[in-house]
Specification:
The complex is a heterotetramer of chains A (427), B (203), C (507) and D (161).
Chain A lengths: L20 H7 L4 H9 L2 H11 L11 H6 L10 E6 L8 H8 L1 H15 L3 E6 L4 H16 L15 E6 L9 H8 L23 E5 H19 L9 E8 L5 E6 L2 E2 H8 L9 E5 L10 H4 L3 E2 L1 H6 L8 E6 L4 H15 L5 H18 L6 H13 L7 H15 L1 H10 L7
Parallel strand pairs in A: 1-2, 1-4, 2-3, 5-10
Antiparallel strand pairs in A: 5-6, 7-9, 8-10
Chain B lengths: L16 H27 L25 E3 L14 H5 L5 E7 L7 E9 L8 H5 L5 E3 L14 E2 L1 H5 L42
Antiparallel strand pairs in B: 1-4, 2-3, 3-5
Chain C lengths: L1 H7 L5 E6 L3 E5 L4 H7 L23 E4 L6 E2 L10 E3 L3 H15 L16 H9 L17 E4 L2 E3 L9 H8 L6 E4 L6 E4 L11 H6 L5 E3 L12 E6 L8 E7 L4 E7 L11 H4 L15 E3 L5 E3 L2 H14 L5 E5 L5 H14 L4 E4 L23 H10 L10 H7 L3 E5 L10 H9 L3 E6 L12 E4 L8 E4 L5 E4 L13 H15 L1
Parallel strand pairs in C: 1-5, 16-17, 16-18, 18-19, 19-20
Antiparallel strand pairs in C: 1-2, 3-4, 3-5, 6-7, 7-10, 8-9, 11-12, 12-13, 14-15, 21-22
Helix pairs in contact in C: 3-4, 8-13, 9-10, 9-13
The chains are: A alpha/beta (427), B alpha+beta (203), C alpha/beta (507), D alpha+beta (161).
Amino acid sequence: MSEAKPKIILRTEGLPDQRSIKTYVDKAEGYTAVRKVLGGLSREQVIEEVKQSGLRGRGGAGFLTGLKWSFVPKDMPGPKYLICNNDESEPGTFKDRYICAVNPHQVIEGMIIAAYAIGANKGYIYTRWEFQEEIGYLETAIKEAYEAGFLGKNLLGSGFDFELDHYSGAGAYICGEETGLISSLEGKKGQPKVKPPFPAVSGYLGRPTIVNNTETLANVPWIINHGPKAFRQWGTEKSPGTKVFSISGALNKPGVYEVPLGYPFESLLNDEGGGMQAGRSLKALIPGGASAPVLTPTECEGLTMDYEAMAQRGTMLGSGAVIIIDDRQSIAELLKVTIDFFAHESCGQCTPCREGTGWLNNIMDGILDRSAKPDNIERLRTVSRNMGGKTICALSDACAMPVMAFVQKFSDELHAYLAAGSGSHRQ
Amino acid sequence: MATGIIKVAPPPEDKNLFQMAYGYASTIFAGMWKTGVIFFMQITGLEKTNTLEWPEQPATYSERFKGKHFLTRRDDGQVRCTACFLCATACPAECITIVAGQHPTNEIEKFPVRFEIDILRCVFCGFCEEACPVDAIRLGPEYAMAGAAGDKWVYTKDYLADRGQLHGGITSVKEENTKHFTTDHNPRGDDLIATDAPHMRHH
Amino acid sequence: MSQESQVTQLPKETITFNLNDRDITVPKGTTVMEAAHRNDVYIPHFCWHPGLSIAGVCRFCLVKVDNRPKLEIACNLQATPGMKVSTLLPEVKEAHKWALEFHLVNHPLDCPICDQAGECKLQDFYMEVGKYKSEMDRPKVLKPKALNVGSELVLDTERCILCDRCVRFEQEVTKTGALGIFNRGDRAIVGTYPDKKIEHNYQDNLVDICPVGAFTSRDFRFKQRVWFLKDKPAVCPGCSTGCHVNVYAKPEVRTYFRVKPRESAVNSHWMCDTGRKTYKHLNQDQRLRFPVATDTTGKRKRVSTAEAVASLVAQLRSVAVQDVALLVSPQYTCEEYAAFFDFFVKKLGVTKVFQWREPTEKLEEFDGLLYRGDHNPNTFGLSEALAKVGLPKDVKNGFDDLARSGAKLVVALAPEIGFQFPSLESQFQRLSELPFVSVWTTSAAAYNVQAFKHLLPLKGFAEKRGSFLNYQGKVGELAHPFPAAVDDAHDVVEVVTAVADVWAHAL
Amino acid sequence: MSVFSESLQAKIQSFLTRYETRRSAILPVLHAIQDEHGWVSEPQIEELHHTYGLDRVHVKEVISFYDIYKDHPVRKYQIRYCKNLTCHMLGAREAICRIKEHITALDAQLGEDGPFSLEEFPCLGKCDGAPVMLVNKERVEYATVDRVDEILAKYAPLPKL
């Protein structure tokens, strides 16, 4: 079935010299959408197209992109900004890195269109520092685009200016949160800002700002070229289009795969992922990055990869980071790793998150060195429940949700680990 | 003779004087004999006496007796009191005067520069003992506090913490709550402040 | 101050919303927290401060809004028409419980040695919504304590709850930005740049706005537990701004301990560190304890107030009125000036009236926030009073004129705040060279000048009723006096009345 | 006398004007400094404060907030080893232990001049190559315990364990 698989994002994948503007223009109808838009589409029309397509943010929240764009005040004087959120730090996620490595120009084209739609004349691509190679690719791509005249003043004689610059993060998960990213871009600590006001009204330097995920923007040119209807031919009613999934774990072929939304998990695991490594079986599944609640094998039966099916099972598609947990893993250790990550990455602004993540981590230490009392395992849930939904950004929920799921679904193993000494099959 | 509820014993009619004298004398003698025997037993030490020769012989009271106050010490010999003023707050007789100060060493932050108890005002209610969060003050079994005019009725910190009867002071075994004065991830840990004991007036 | 101007310039249109089943009408754009604050509904909070911008980080002011899934923070929640807000629902209380628990997870049990104890928000809320059985049974995060971050300040980063108030104060009020929050997560600590100190004249405001005991005042540190103190409203005599303040004292020991700002249109929520030192001169060790006069042999001795007054009147009779001069410092209340001039100028007809000012003072100086170059609380009032009795009201130091005037008897109202008068000693010297000077003063300094033959102890600003007129002529009321720390002290009104009586009867 | 090289000064200047606000330049400037010196020292912060108008408190906040910036001297090769879910599942823990052993051995010989430093890093975003690590800026995939030795040997001679 893989030949029937549509390519919206990774269109230049596998082609010779896939990153270059030449390949993009020749082989993937590159920059035709920009021509179309600047050729005579109005801003409202562009936004309408995207609205119609039902494109949802691919960064994790799954918010409707067109709707987001329409929040930008139309006739507000002064600069507006468009930011591409390429700070992909969610553990298990690496799709944006791959997109930048395969087809960076489509992201840039998407940005030009988005910028035109919201009336922004300055754009930034904010990439995490760890992606050194990909930062290189992006910078060359931007250079190529400038040389080809798709960036800069008066694009294609339309009178529309768009300057695009690259900005590199410095190792902070929280900068993936849009207001945190904006703070970071302003040269501050990457601490999220209180909302309201929302960035669409007052973001970067207090100006209207739209922050979109790399993959989201990469969808835009295709939608403009082929129209919303064509886009909706894939995916489900509420989650149209394709999604780039990054699959990792003890698989034969971990990697990045673009499939339509609503794609069955079975085939994703066995066809794309190449199935579990020999001698290992599925113990649990994290479908949307470290912050998504874990699923047991039984819950995975008949699971389709789309926003609704995930919500139905009390978890989320997130950034499409599918982490396969095999039977050799100790849940206690994985839980520690997860909590430790969030405790390390909490920006320290809101008390429930700052103290809560630290407290959870503290308890996990006790469980790992077995100094903790059994009631501490239930306490993990109590604390999580009370730190969720009370903070500026979603990081405390991102920590609370997986913890509650892990403890609820694997409490026996955790208790065994604490009591017997070893819940791990490794030792 | 009234017969009724009350029966009155008849007077000894058939007793002559000698019999009566014998009766009295025998009882008197019996009493003196008893006394004599006990006297003899006790001076010869055959029987234990129930009184003691105070003040030559000291009387010891129970540990829980609320007598003269004393201040406990840490393991390092420092007075444990943190000068939190809770005893002074609780004291119904307002007999405790504390002057707090910054301790020169960094392990201890606040300590009593002066800690005085006006024993003439004290009512030995033991509230100070109850109020103390760090087991720094206790009321001990010492009860003898008589003295002459001109004696020191205001007990000073040194006296409360270390007087002859305390044999070098009582150490409280309460575990310290951790203090953190090291310089790790502390840009300027060497720069800990040391202010002088604040001056305080009293009327 | 800016905050005040905002309050006055709010838009006309108002909206009405419902807070705890009570309809409240506020200007459009007001947050629920402000609305509650202005209508005396208390919503517990740490990071919100009426004088600072909104941070929304303590997550403590959670309230329930009808038909909204999540609890929201009142400090960043705009009141909209018809909105129903509740702070009393069980779910809100539960949220507060846990919000507090999170604050206390790594908070050290320093209350016995913490100066904030007694006025600490954590303690207050703990009594209200505390989880009396904490679920935290793991070792706490340790952070540096008792750091020297400024001449007036001691910082304890372990007690800090990272409410960010101090950082915002540094950025928004003093614009010095000396403080920052470093690291992240539960390792975050507040502090200055390594080896840099906070240097401005408003440090103690950090102590005031700190909701816990992280910042403590070096001056007040360990001196008293706050629950022993009584506070009474007064006006700061430190400069012509006349900040509204509360004076804290322990009457049983007749000792003053500190001065703190009181919210008002004049000074918003702040005051300078100089002003906070204006309690020191009120304490007995710096006060003139008793009246002094000379006996027949001309030797100084302690006398009763009556005797002192009598001897002054005798002196007054012995000289001609034109040889009498008045030397008045601008640190007394309007009422005192009125009484003083009433008797000496109106009744006796004294014409030689001079101002006792600091020669080095620079009147036009202003630090841009509160502290002014005119270090007297009532320059304005003095000028008014002078004008009322038809004397020149212009502000100038009258010492030279006094020397030239050839006055034989001088009645001098000495400055109360000695440390604002660098040249006080030399002035005393010059004054003592005159034939007869009656010095009315609070401070013991005058007593040490042997040449002064006649001294009258006065009450300090916290011990008398009256009013100051600040640089704008705004009235600052002294309405709630403490009992004087010195038995024989009286205010000028009382003394003048006594003098007038004796004068009248002696006729 | 500047603590920065000519080229670095030029770089910093260009960043200061490149963004809307001077403050936005803090991150790129610090990256530039670290690329040359490996870490950011207090004299450098002072110069940024006085010569380039980047407030020292802001700079210090940023350095302490982000993982990448170091305010203390670093080794020749900084190893950042991903310890997150996927890498952990595929043997990060054992590899990290192995690397630690090597570093202790090296430090025993060379002390502070040891070539490697190890940082257990939250996530490197290369889970399909797990376990993965960064040596300075170079990404090394499949850095399992049995390959660690040869990988490290490429950078510096290792003593026998």
